[in-house]
Amino acid sequence: MKIKIFSFMLLLFICTAGTFTIKADNQPITTNKSIKVNKSTKLYKVLKVKKSTMKNYTITSSKPKVASVSSTGVVKGLKKGSSTIRLTSKSTGAVYANIKIKVKNRYNKSELKLMSSIIYSEANGECFAGKKAVGIVIMNRIKSKSFPSSLSGVIYQPYQFGPVRNGSLNRSLSLYDSGKMNKDCISAAKLTLNGDKNVKYGNRTINMTGYLFFSGYVSGARLTIQNHQFK
Question: Cα–chain-centroid distance for residue 210?
Fold first, then answer.
């Protein structure tokens, strides 16, 4: 009798333990990942699985305007915000994983103020494409070995920007602090600081990667936008 009771209890324990394990295994993976605007990450690296397993899942983003995701699991940050990337099994329909993506800007408040102000000083009278193009040139210089490697270093490099020498930049910085800065200048600054390299002008989209100079006249200019030439 004791043996039967012991066997029954053992069987009950095994069944209970087995049920608990199966339930735990069926729970979706939940994890977090931060990326910056215009940067990307690969989900198979986030989840630490083989790249080939991505084909087994339908992959969606809860906010595709914040973070897009490809069918192969490449997530790209599009603008500041949060989105959940979900992997759903194509065979069973079960949710395999939820990855909470936090997209961050690639700049801080002081950098936004400085970039907005130099764009205002140099191109407030220009169209939006002209404003944005000025910001792109400045960002390209930061990446170039021929110029300083920081935003302030590029803008305050001696003999480069007239508004620094003539006091116009200081007045623009004060205007920014007053809240009266041209909104297009701020928008152009945000886009360029986040790595946008394209301008739309004359019914075409122009990639300005590699442009390092602008002025009213530039020898060998490759692009003219209103009153500025770019090279």
Answer: 20
Kindly give, in sequence order, each residue whose CB lies less than 8 Å from that of residue 167, ignoring residues fewer than 6 positions away. none
Confidence (pLDDT) at 16: 42
CA separation for the pair 97, 3 (Å, rounded): 45
Percent of the chain residues past pLDDT 90, beyond the cut: 89
Give mean pLDDT, residues 121-143: 98
HEC readout, 38-78: CCEEEHHHHHCCCHHHHHHEEEEECCCCCEEECCCCEEEEC
Q: How far apart are CA 121 and CA 161, in angstroms?
A: 10
Parallel, antiparallel or unpaired: strands 74-77 and 67-69: antiparallel
Which strand (E) or helix (H) includes residue 215?
A: strand 214-215
Q: Which residue has the tokens 């940067």?
A: 39
The amino acid occupying position 159 is Y
Q: What is the pLDDT of residue 60?
A: 98
The DSSP result for 114-147, as a single string, is HHHHHHHHHHTTS-HHHHHHHHHHHHHHHHSTTS
Handedness of CA 122, 125, 129, 132 (dihedral sign): positive
